[in-house]
Design goal:
The chain is mainly alpha-helical. The chain is 66% helix and 3% strand. The longest helix is centred in the first third of the chain and has 36 residues. It is a multi-pass membrane protein.
Length: 491
């Protein structure tokens, strides 16, 4: 039973019966975080601002633009454009907060690391656990979508994979395993395990190809737009626009993964803000253009039977079958880059948490030759691959969105707190209009969170409860801050 609650400076210390004291909100100073990233075997610095921007685009343009335009159109109709703008604004407000922290704390871990420096260990653990949900389920969900495109592509050239090997048990009659989903994740895990340089070139090439495909959609489709299809513009009202915004928010998932690359960036203070903001700006513009064109070509009601391939369907509807075929290839490439960046982000968040003692040590072990977290890359890749292969993932998009939105809210709070507590820190990039812009980020992200169904909140709560139990059973006592505190008491 808790007997008293005391606040001492930047610690919140809970004293319980028996004299046991738990420092839930102990913090790591920014200097300590940076120094810790430079000790022992370090990650290899290979990334420029250009690479980071392509990393962000690789994560953002994929399932969202090729699949979720159809899902969102059924909720918002032609007003899907507004839904993308709302989701983009929420991300933009959060992105400025990310950019300030990324330039200030060039350390792996993204929001987890930033929270450790400002809001304390327990909040950092919660958001790190939240990020694991975001990245793992995102990789799994996208791998299932990729499997569908790949299977259809093979069928088109006369190669049939048995239906029992292309779906998770319970999702289709007779399904045993989604084998293509498992195989593609294992290939991506291999790429990431052998080095960021190799992964970078593969990602940059695939991003260039899918940008060409998106440009082709815009150029080929704009001549078939019929303004009559935009009437009525908002058939479901603002409720439909809000629901669609919360759903297509998944389309923006990934720009935060840019910040996880801090320790592998050549000039993080300069290049990280550029990579984050460039990738988000380019992708938002492309989403608005594509969603407007697609809903202008096809009456939005017709997407009910084409939620898996709305962009390809729109070009087929316009009689441009050759473009539709290219789009299917572009979608498969786009999904591969999403999986690559998401799995990369997961391994780097886990790396940071392990280095702080909150996860087992082997997760942050760096390979002698490849200078990557080799073992943890294969571990997380295997988890993601098995989830995609054996678990039906019907509601994953909404659950992933919840985790991402929670992370965006916390990063906005953290920037505000640090501006108040440490206003004189040397910030290479400053988020403008603090606290107005962080407050806007909190409002927009909070709005989208409350558009998600109650079942999503329940599942998210269960995941957080599991994480809190793990923290008190393992992470709190193994934390390096706790070890340092115990050593100080002993001396």
């Amino acid at each position: 039973m808790i007997s008293n609650l005391l606040v001492y400076g930047h610690y919140l210390k809970l004293s319980v019966k028996g004299g046991v004291r738990v420092d839930l909100f102990r913090k790591k100073s920014i200097d300590t975080l940076i120094a810790g990233s430079q000790q022992g075997k370090t990650l290899k610095k290979e990334l420029s601002a250009f690479d980071l921007a392509f990393l962000g685009i690789g994560a953002i343009i994929g399932t969202g633009i090729f699949v979720l335009t159809g899902v969102g159109a059924l909720d918002a109709g032609p007003a899907l454009v507004i839904s993308f703008i709302i989701a983009g604004l929420a991300c933009a407000f959060a992105a400025f907060n990310y950019a300030e922290f990324a330039s200030l704390v060039p350390v792996s871990g993204s929001v987890y690391t930033y929270s450790y420096a400002t809001l304390g260990e327990f909040i950092a653990w919660v958001i790190g656990w939240d990020l694991m949900l975001e990245y793992i389920l995102a990789v799994s969900a996208v791998s299932v979508g990729w499997s569908g495109y790949f299977t259809n592509f093979l069928a088109g050239i006369g190669i049939e994979i048995p239906a029992s090997l292309t779906a998770a048990p319970g999702s289709d009659p007779g399904a045993i395993i989604n084998l293509p989903s498992l195989v593609i994740v294992m290939i991506i895990a291999f790429l990431l395990s052998i080095g960021v340089k190799e992964s970078k070139w593969v990602n940059n090439l695939m991003v260039a190809l899918k940008l060409i495909v998106v440009a082709l959609v815009i150029v080929a489709g704009v001549f078939y737009v019929k303004p009559d299809n935009w009437t009525p513009f908002m058939p479901m009202g603002w409720d439909g626009v809000g629901l669609a915004a919360a759903t297509v928010f998944f389309a923006y998932l990934g720009f935060d993964a840019v910040s996880t690359a801090a320790e592998e960036t050549r000039n993080p203070s300069r290049d990280l803000p550029k990579g984050i903001l460039w990738s988000l700006g380019i992708c938002t513009l492309l989403y608005i253009l594509v969603s407007g064109i697609v809903t202008g070509i096809v009456p939005w009601q017709k997407f009910a039977d084409h939620q898996d391939d709305p962009v390809a369907f729109a070009l087929q509807f316009a009689g441009q079958d050759w473009v539709a075929g290219i789009i299917s290839v572009g979608a498969a490439i786009g999904m591969m880059t999403v999986m690559l960046v998401m799995l990369y982000g997961q391994t780097r968040v886990g790396f940071a948490m392990s280095r702080d003692g909150l996860l087992p040590k082997w997760i942050s072990k760096v390979h002698d030759k490849y200078r990557t977290p080799f073992a943890s890359t294969w571990f997380y890749g295997t988890v993601c691959g098995l989830l995609g292969a054996f678990v039906p993932l019907d509601d994953l998009v909404k659950l992933v969105n919840m985790g991402t939105l929670a992370a965006f809210v916390l990063i906005s709070v953290a920037v505000w707190v640090l501006r108040v507590k440490q206003p004189d820190l040397p910030r290479k990039f400053r988020c403008p209009w603090v606290p107005v812009l962080p407050i806007l980020a909190i409002i927009f992200c909070g709005y989208l969170m409350f558009q998600l169904p109650g079942s999503t909140w329940l599942r998210f709560g269960i995941w957080l409860l599991i994480g809190i139990i793990f923290y008190f059973v393992y992470s709190r006592k193994n934390s390096k801050l706790n070890s340092a505190s115990e050593a100080e008491k002993a001396s």
